[in-house]
Amino acid sequence: DAISQIGSPPAEKKKIISKTLRFVAHYHGAHLCYYSSKVETLVMKVRGLLGHLVFKTQLSKSVMTDHTKPIYVLAGMDAISQIGSALEQWKGLFLSTFPQEAEAAMPEDPTKDTKYNEPIIDSVRLQKDEELERFKKLQERKMREEARRDGKLF
Prior knowledge:
With 154 residues, this protein is an all-alpha fold. 55% of the residues lie in helices and 3% in strands. It has helices at residues 2-6, 11-28, 40-55, 80-83, 87-97, 119-149, and strands at 32-33, 72-73. A two-stranded antiparallel ribbon has the order 1-2. Helix 2 runs antiparallel to helix 5. The radius of gyration is 27 Å and the shape is elongated.
């Protein structure tokens, strides 16, 4: 459903996406199922798969690997000879086709980021930070007193 909302990618990109996902699923022993609530056959296949996983019902062994249609491949039902063999090959091809954007650097302390101000949460957090500091000082003082009592100095 998400792809239909943003538009369908060109056939060559669909093929790369499909084969990369098939390889990753095969590599990890996972099922790969495209899903759309608008396509009744997919609804039935996914319902059958979920029934099998939850209730151990009989599972259809049909496989759909055509990249121009929705993919439905159960774990162990695909073949490396049909996909391609190396993880690095697929990773390189995928990244060259779909360049990744650099992630924005995380602030040193995300709790102090002004973009996400929440007055109630911030006030409770401030209160808890103050309680923690008091607790640390109290524990430190207790340790010093015990050390003095035992004749050990810090």
